[in-house]
Amino acid sequence: LLTSARRGRSGQVVGVMGCMAQRLGRSVLDKVPRLDFVVGTRRLAAIPAIVECVRAGHGPVVDTEEGVAFDEALDGHDERGVAAYINILLGCDRRCTYCIVPAVRGPEWSRPAAGVLAEARALADAGVRDVTLLGQSVTMYGRRGPPVWPAAALSPRGFAEPLPRLIEAVGAVEGIGRVRFTSGHPAGCTPELVRAIAEVGAACEHLHLPLQSGSDRVLDAMRRGYTTEDYRRAAGRLRAAMPELALTTDAIVGFPSESEEDFERTRAFMDEMAFDNAFVFKYSPRPGTVAAGWNDDVPEAEKMRRNQVLLADQESRGLRLNERLVGRRVEVLVEGASLRNEKRWTGRTRTNKIVVFEPREGVRAGDMVQVDVDRAMPQTLYGTIGR
Ligand code: SF4
After folding, report:
1. Looking at residue 43, what is its pLDDT?
2. Who lines ligand 1 at CB under 6 A?
3. Is residue 7 predicted with pLDDT exceeding 60?
4. How far is CA 299 from CA 259, 263, 385, in A?
5. Which pLDDT belongs to residue 17?
6. What is the pTM of this model?
7. Half-sphere exposure of 209 (CA within 13 A, CB side)
8. How far is the CA of 49 from the centre of ligand 1 (A)?
9. Ligand 1: distance of its center to the CA of 50 in Å?
10. How far does residue 138's CA lie from ligand 1's centre (Å)?
11. Helix (H) or strand (E) holding 229
12. 26: number of CA atoms within 13 Å, CB side?
């Protein structure tokens, strides 16, 4: 990656950020010598300043400051023109055996609603229309840490639980047409939460609900805290309330001791769940995690094969699901010119599907348009703005 980035464009700034960067700090520079920066999980908001610093010739920069106040850590959003992320929850109280997040980011901590709403208003003023509320296990919002709402009163729609109240409040911010939240956890898909998503007009029919494995034995070894039956129930509840729901997921292949039978269970379960999209990862041990002490016994070539099989399954499943939309009209939030072809424009549906279409006079980024879908690919829909 580094070599091709360097060859491709001079002036490119390349850095590493996230949990492993936080944990390894400066030593990442020894492993990847031409890196420009290493940034920890609580310093994401500092990245623009760090990039400037590198461009001014003061790199490489290592910033894995541990003592940053939570408010500062959360005071930053990832803005993508008309869409943006808002951090609402940091850290995690779970203990999945392969994951370094709890050790690096600390216990779960929810951001008070007032700060989230202030950020949502500022984003709406800047032209953002689609907001994703972000957290490791976001369905736990408000259940750990300090109170997130000043009073226990119900929301205007009668929601008592913190996340539904927040979704409703962000959705009520003028200009915000869509609200999403990621990532979910099956344990958090309570009837109250599902009712809220279905009832709040701005809440999109899209949820990223990591599965990781379709084998109960592997889920137990991962300490995910649910079985496939729990997951099935959560997905069923969501789909009963929102028949149009697009469900996306993560899966890990080659977890220690994962047998061919376990893997085939994952394949079958992913098919049963009819995921609209899936991110598939080959297991690799993270130092400091429980699973790192176990025998990493699935050979690399086999991990690669399982990875390719799940991706191929997802390609055909994605195509099959998208083809059902051909001939239908979908609401699209216009993002602007396509990166691949400037003569085409792109946007996203409420279900987070990318739609490519011909631009039309007077249509601008941030507009909602109705697009008639005439062609489908596994990851993309193509169509024409409807009259
Ligand atoms: Fe928490 Fe498990 Fe997600 Fe890691 S993988 S952030 S431990 S829920």
Report:
1. 66
2. 92, 94-96, 99, 101-102, 136-137
3. no
4. 11, 14, 49
5. 83
6. 0.84
7. 28
8. 29
9. 28
10. 11
11. helix 228-241
12. 2
